[in-house]
Amino acid sequence: MSKYLKLVSGVLQQADNVLLGLRKNTEYYSGFWAFPCGRLESGENFVDALRRELFEETGIQMIDGENLTTLFDHEQQIEHEVFQVTEWRGEPINREPQLCQELRWFPLTQLPTPITPATLKILMSLVGENSADQ
Fold first, then answer.
1. Is the Cα dihedral 97, 69, 19, 127 positive or negative?
2. Could you give the CA distance from residue 79 to residue 8 in angstroms, rounded to a whole number?
């Protein structure tokens, strides 16, 4: 049995805004909005990979986060861990303009399109949580 590709995403929120990047020149979902995301490198755990990816893509230093969910795509053999980044240092900037056309904060009530399927699934759960809080 082949090993699953392991991905990790970070959800950054400020009030009711969420940070998304517009992917470009990527193997999957180029032209779609997504959370900062990346693959685990050899020997990394999910938290270390997320810290590295967030710094590489946005320049922020993750201080703390909590696991939101794990998404499995058994057909494509992908395991995707998703973390809510609860504390970070720095202001997000686009550090990978060759792979990200734009990095922007969006209100949960005014999300862009198109959005990757995994990102959309997570956003829908966040929208549900925020409407339940009101």
1. positive
2. 8
Among the listed residues 82, 74, 65, the one whose alpha carbon sits nearest the alpha carbon of residue 120 = 82
Question: Structure tokens of 131?
Answer: 């409407």
What's the rounded Cα separation, in Å, for the pair 36 and 93? 11
Give how far Cα 60 sits from Cα of 10, 42, 51, Å. Answer: 11, 22, 9
**69-124 confidence digits (pLDDT tens):** 999 989 889 999 999 999 999 999 999 999 999 999 999 999 999 999 999 999 98
Q: pTM for the whole thing?
A: 0.90
Which domains are assigned to the chain?
5-133 (3.90.79.10)
